[in-house]
Amino acid sequence: MSDTYVLVHGAWHTGAELEPAADFIRKAGHTVHCPTLKGNRPGDDRGAIGLADAVQSLCDFVTDNDLHAIRLAGHSWGGMVISGAAEVLAERIARLIYVNAFVPDPGESLTDLVPPIYVGLFDSLAQANGDAVMLPFPIWREAFINDADLALATSAYAKLNLQPYKTFTDKSTISKPMAAFEIGKSYVNATSDTALPHSLPWHPRLSEKLGLFRYVQCEGSHEVWFTNPEAIAQALVIAGRD
Amino acid sequence: MSDTYVLVHGAWHTGAELEPAADFIRKAGHTVHCPTLKGNRPGDDRGAIGLADAVQSLCDFVTDNDLHAIRLAGHSWGGMVISGAAEVLAERIARLIYVNAFVPDPGESLTDLVPPIYVGLFDSLAQANGDAVMLPFPIWREAFINDADLALATSAYAKLNLQPYKTFTDKSTISKPMAAFEIGKSYVNATSDTALPHSLPWHPRLSEKLGLFRYVQCEGSHEVWFTNPEAIAQALVIAGRD
Amino acid sequence: MSDTYVLVHGAWHTGAELEPAADFIRKAGHTVHCPTLKGNRPGDDRGAIGLADAVQSLCDFVTDNDLHAIRLAGHSWGGMVISGAAEVLAERIARLIYVNAFVPDPGESLTDLVPPIYVGLFDSLAQANGDAVMLPFPIWREAFINDADLALATSAYAKLNLQPYKTFTDKSTISKPMAAFEIGKSYVNATSDTALPHSLPWHPRLSEKLGLFRYVQCEGSHEVWFTNPEAIAQALVIAGRD
Hints:
3 copies of one chain form a homotrimer. Chain A has helices at about 20-25, 50-65, 80-90, 115-130, 135-145, 150-155, 165-170, 225, 230-240; strands at about 5-10, 30-35, 70-75, 95-100, 130-135, 165, 185-190, 215-220. The first copy, chain A, is about 35% helix and about 15% strand. Chain A is α/β, with parallel strands linked by helices and about 240 residues long. In chain A, helix 3 (about 80-90) links the parallel strand 3 (about 70-75) and strand 4. Chains in contact: A-B, A-C, B-C.
């Protein structure tokens, strides 16, 4: 059975960083797309682009390529984007896959779902830098890519790009809770992921907002895409199959 | 050291589904029995049989076969049954092993220990079907056997049998909390088991009702008996040894 | 890159029990010291020695050997000791590593951080035995070394020594919360460790007192030093590197 995957990157990333994992999924016989969303492309106006622009760019990618029966996976902030796209693209989606990803309720923003200490940090970074934010390296190294050595942590950090802060503060325009969407849903949890503190965790706090869903876990950090792309690819295939 | 195991199946199952795991335990040098309890046998009156009948059938099995120093393991609903049997069979039991299993307090039923949404579902299914219930396939596939592919999920589902609902709603008649039973106790936790939501989890919510107990975990879903019988067998041997 | 590790044992242990893991770290190219603290040495007056004595003996070891840029790891109660030493030795420490270890706030003792049932038990044991306590074997076997067979559980227990109870009840004299120390910090969590019940867990309850920290997990019990020294050594290297 050959399935079609669309992998949606998280904040500060582009689709390119997901390609090593995508290659492992392709080796299992599937088709995989890793688009880079509006807001994370070279030359994008990072002070103006918001969540709706990112969602629209994903919808455009799917319809422009006329994709059907897709396994639509979103990592981290990408969960905000695939949730928004689910309403528009419902008939083209076989399954939504959240990968340590945010699951909004109607009217919730990413900043509603993270610890206040992160919101304060991002607010001040955005103010100082034209409404675009970069994750500070110490947080990246300790809390996001804790399973890498310093060389990998450093080279991976060099690939990140500035995130438009409006994509974090804009509220989701979904019309109903994700549990009410009649689409297959999976949640993939990398169990050493401390990008959100385990006292305010990805799973089950956010995953259970999906209603009935399939849980798949793998070992790794938030950035397992860099540290163990084969492990996250295997988890995605288990999460994405019928 | 050769030990004697009795593996007690969960709701909707028979002993036959535990045989692949039992075979791995036998290869490690032990004797293993997988009885099918009253209520899950062909021809049983599923509208009338209750928890006490299931407990009695387990006690009969153990005494009829004159088993001693047994490692008595119960899976899921089977935890209700081995708890009831512990009082009657205490001198024949070396250790109780709960495998993602319910641990009742005196007077608690299984329906007291699951999310209200499940109780509502089971109530309506029982009303419509002569007080016997079947687990709906979508819940089975996503929340019980999340680590299987669709073919295995389907073939395993075909082996299930109707569960007498009285075995879920009858209250445990144990005379004291399980923590007060002076028997060795272990709790085996398959860490991807979402048959109970992780916000209302098997462990530590139910396991810690045992008082002092030995914790053993393995990777797998609630139905790891089908998806990885060797892993659950290894966990059972670690849980069951002195 | 060759790093210098100092591994600080937990209560009832000496440095000798950490040597098998230390050997695996040495094989990875590092220097490792496993001192035995004041209070756990032959002939020590176990009725009189307190937490400050243990901290002082660690500081003496580090300065006597003129160690620098150390990865200072503390197991269990050893977390109380490395926290106290962090203030004195700050310029000699590259990173603090807590291994299923206690993290005190200023003025907190170990007995402030464990379940009341343990405090009551230790109180009565200390009263009966000149203010020194031994962990009862049933708790050791079921809750501390749950992943061992009985032979290893027994032989490892025979290596334990009486713990001065004042080292549990003395309050930490650190001047500020550990989160305020500007030193690298890691927390290693053996995921089957039930020495603290998972309803009152090591992680994230105690780990998040560190502020920004690196999380590393491995499979094993509280006594993974005996049951899988290679696994804990690998986790320590991931936790300790820059």
